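Homework help board

Subject: predicted structure for assignment chain

Our instructor gave us this sequence and asked us to write out the predicted structure in token form, then describe one feature. I got the tokens but I'm not sure how to describe them. Can anyone check?
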Amino acid sequence: MGAKKRIRAEKLKEERKNHYYAVLRNCPTSPRKMRLVVDLIRGVEVNEALDILRFTPKEAAKRVEKLLKSAIANWEIKNEGVRLEEANLYVKEAYVDSARVLKRLRPAPQGRAHRIRKRSNHVTIVLDSYNQTEKA
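My token output:
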């Protein structure tokens, strides 16, 4: 590895220590359906986001709730001794990307076939905390 590449990698590694996130990969739900749920929690305080997800009737909400709990656990590991209630955590970023598409065939009339696309997605949740200066 060249010097520039190593320096850049070390810089990214240091920046990543200050980010608290969780990623769900290859979730077998359509990205369009998952975005409806993720849009509900973007920019919302963490405890309120958990409540929203708990009472959302969509199937995707259970997976996003589990992912949010994972992101909170990642934050707790990096911040030992700090209470969650005092940290003022909120969902800074939440986005859904398309993943692989499984292509299947369904029989159609007169000997033809239609293609069925079974979509999946990747979900990423990034947490951050409000500073005292931002609240004022």
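Reply (TA_rk): Your tokens look well-formed. For the description, you could write something like this. The longest strand covers residues 89-107. That's the kind of observation they're looking for.
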